[in-house]
Amino acid sequence: MWQQVEQSLHSSMGLVMNKIATLLPGILAFIAAFLFFLLIGWLVALLVRRILTAMHFDERMRGGASAIAEWSPRATPSLLVGRVVFWCFVFAGVVVGVSALGTSEHIVSGWMLGYVPRLVGAAILLLAGNVLARFVARSVLITGVNLNLSYARLLSMGVRWMILVLTGAMVLDHLALGGAIVELGFGILFGGIVFALALAVGLGSRDLVSRSLEREASRPVEVAQPEKIHHF
Amino acid sequence: MAAVEITEETRQQAERVGPADVVVGIAGAVSPDELRVRAQQVLTELGSGASSLRFVFAWPGATPEAAAGAVQAAENPALTLIPFAPPAQGTGELWADVSACQRAVLALAASLKARACIVLGSDLAALRTPLIQLFTYAVLDRQCGLVMPVYPSAKYDGLINSGILSPLSRALYGKRVHYPLAFDFAVSGALCAGLARTSPAAANSLLWPVTVAATQFPQAPVGQVHVDAHHQVAAEGLELSAVLGQLAGSLFQEMDQCASHWQRIRGSQATPAWGNAGDGQPDGQPIDPQPMLDSFLLGSKNLEEVWRLLLPPNALLELRRLTKLAPDQFRMPDDLWACIVYDFALAYRLRTINRVHLLGAFTPLYLGWVASYVREVSNLSSAAAEQRLEQFARAWEEKKPYLLSRWRWPDRFNP
Q1: Residue among A74, A150, A227 whose CB faces B298 most closely
Q2: Do A231 and B284 touch (CB under 8 A)?
Q3: Strands B222-226 and B116-121: what pairing?
Q4: Predicted pLDDT of residue B64
Q5: Rounded to whole angstroms, what are the CA distances from B207 to B136, B177, B180?
Q6: In B, which residues are within 8 Å of A148 by CB distance?
Q7: Are B320 and B253 in the same domain?
Q8: Partner A contacted by B259 (CB < 8 A)
Q9: Contact between B298 and A65 using a beta-carbon 8 Å cutoff
Q10: List of chain B residues whose C-beta atoms are within 8 Å of the C-beta of residue A132
């Protein structure tokens, strides 16, 4: 019996070692491709930054109302372009590496390989959705405060969650998780919110709206008073 | 640095007109007929006093009708009118377009080899003989490189200027100029070309006359003249936050570009002023600062998470303390307001958050200062309010070391 156990252990160990041995070239190819593209990306980004600096790219961007200058985080537009170039190469390295991993057949299933681009796409969607949600929420909050809206924070939070929910639904859909449930759930949620708002305005505020309209209709035409304070 | 280009047509016109002593340029759309009448009146009133000087009046209007107007005017040898092509890049923003037009006037004056150039607002409110005399006197007789106006204003007028532009410009560049953002000013011939020149990065600059004069021509004296004129600013439809964002953004951008210059400047120099200051504006009725205070309180309730990214803990603590004060005790200390503006300028430079957000988050703080100022000067006369603003501007100068320290070492711990 011990012989049989020993034999099965040997054979399973051999199988695992064999699999690792066949996986290793793929992993090495992945690492080599990734490092190669990392190096190329670093060099190209450096070159791009040098060229842009020589062209006074930052000053030109800051001269006009340029969008790229507004989106540059803390640093200069040329650094932003350099970073974009660098990360493009890193992404290309990952793609080439994963393809090299895929060529070492029978190691990683085709399904998993096919799923990697979806995962990458979903991660990008999630990141973009989060950035957009933060940006738009902050814009709404600041604009609301400057318009003296006491419910500015509520509005901002609502916009933020709407974008996050939309992003979540898009991510799940992209990952092909949940299937029709996501679409259905999202449709019900969004539709519900719109319906609730419509009911709130249509029923709850009916009297308020009619009173407001009556007041507006009966109000005498006011002559605008000159402002006593001048900011500019 | 690139020169502001004048078109070939304008250049030919300038060559035909020949050299001038004084160029009076209008920085904005104006009726040629009205300009001709007013210019003729000014020349007549100047009479023999200006007989030795050749005046050329310029206005933006390189249309066939405008050219015809120039020809008609040329029939009168005493009056020379010259149209010039207005700058092409119209942004639609009030001060940006005016600023571009002012630069074009200076470029034309440089091509005419003028000894002095007087730039006036397009409503022609300042096209009056005493003012032309004053500007000419300050540039030609008193050898000023740049002459800025001092407008008569009531204590509640031009609060963005009083609360931000003037004290910040004074603290940075060391010139005590009342109105760094002006529709009317005069420049000596030596400075015309220099001021017309602009780098692409400085194209959006609005306070450039004072900034360029102080940083690139520090030896050129700066003077002021009392201009008894009121310009009508089309304020209707303009959002305070948008205007404040444009002005403060332009100023912060200038600070970034001229950092190597203003970091070397300490204190400020008085600028001589000529002309009659007048009796001042009537004090007017007291204003209720409560709406401004409410805006500030709403901002402090909702925007603290944004302010926390831009302001140091000490300033946040002070602001929180202010929100707890009773409305009749609300007063924002001068040094706190100066530090807040300095911190926003630094955050603008570092791009701590999106610049549009940064400038938007600035408005409630500004309204807090306005509420404090309005409450403080409500019982003061215009003259006393003026003295109060002088004291306020000194506080900005005293806080300049704080700005220098934050600017040079932004990552250093700052309680």
Answers
A1: A150
A2: no
A3: unpaired
A4: 52
A5: 22, 11, 6
A6: 294-295, 298
A7: no
A8: no
A9: no
A10: none
Do residue B146 and residue B86 come from a single domain?
yes
Confidence check on the interface: ipTM exceeds 0.90, yes or no = no
Vertex B120 angle, CA B98 and B194, to 5°:
70
Residues of chain A with pLDDT under 70: 62-75, 102-113, 201, 204-206, 208-209, 212, 216, 219-229, 232
Residue A148 and residue B294: Cβ atoms within 8 Å? yes
Q: Is residue B2 part of a domain?
A: no
How far apart (Å, rounded) are the C-alpha atoms in residues B250 and B235? Answer: 19
User: Is residue B151 domain-shared with residue B243, that is, in the same domain?
Assistant: yes
Which parts of chain B register pLDDT below 50? 1-2, 71
Same domain for B45 and B115? yes
| In a shared domain, residues B105 and B235 | yes
Give B350's contacts in chain A (Cβ within 8 Å): 74
pLDDT in tens, B91-126: 566 677 888 888 888 888 888 888 999 999 888 888
Q: What burial letters (b/e) apply to A57-81, b meaning 16+ CB within 10 Å?
A: bbebbbbeeeeebeebeeebbbbbb
Question: Is B415 part of any domain?
Answer: no
Query: Do residues A48 and A87 make contact, with C-beta atoms less than 8 angstroms apart?
Result: no
Q: Residues 126..145 of A with a Cβ closer than 8 Å to B: which?
A: 135, 138-139, 141-145
How far off is chain B from A203, nearest CA to CA, in Å?
A: 30
The boundaries of the domain holding residue B388 are: 290-408
Tell if the CB–CB gap between B244 and A74 is shorter than 8 Å. Answer: no
> Are both B205 and B312 inside the same structural domain?
no
- Statement to judge: residues B295 and B245 lie in one domain: no
| Candidates A157, A230, A232, partner chain B, best to mutate (most B CBs within 10 A) | A232
Is B283 part of any domain? no
Comparing CB atoms, the residue among A143, A146, A232 nearest residue B160 is: A232
Is the CB of A150 inside 8 Å of chain B's CB atoms? yes
Do B268 and B297 have their domain in common?
no
Sole residue written with tokens 């002593």: B21
CATH code of residue B205: 3.90.550.10
Return the closest-CA partner of residue B10 out of B90, B87, B122, B118: B87
The count of structural domains within chain B is 2
